[in-house]
Amino acid sequence: MLGYGLCGNTVENVERLIADADIPVVISREEGVILNNSIEVALGRERVQSSLHAEGGTYFLTPAGTSAIKDIQRIPESDGILGVGKGIDVSKIIKLFKSRYKRVIKVCYSDADEKDPEYSKIVADFAKKFGLEIKTERGSSKLVLDALQRGFDSVHNKNKSFKFKKKIKEYRIINENRRAFE
Asked: 75, 78, 115, 138: which is deepest, by most CB within 10 A?
């Protein structure tokens, strides 16, 4: 089984693409609607939309998301990651980020996440780097677990169907063999 996250729904007709996959592919949903990213999976679409409505310049960080930015203080204040005039102009990205975002929501799945000193430090460093207010929200793994359960149920039902079809085939072979000896 493969879990698939859309991260902004960048693939059109994803359900049609995965329908013929050799393995079950599960996508997190809420009330039957595909969720667009890990933040919607953690908080639910309505809470994300409510947070964005309250402050359009909201950035979300999860414990998994912070693993990619552990050393936020190392973001270079240079002309480019690959050297002057090459690659990404980090200073422009930082200015754009500072002008666009006003707060960061620290998503915590448990008390352990809220008290995790490394996670807290990364979020605090990130907020400081970009001048953001920090707000904490409690996330949930329920929507991921629901998707996994649907996937397991799908596999189980396909296996039942396969076993049933196999039994029918065996029964037919036995009956054909019986007839051959009569």
From this structure: 75
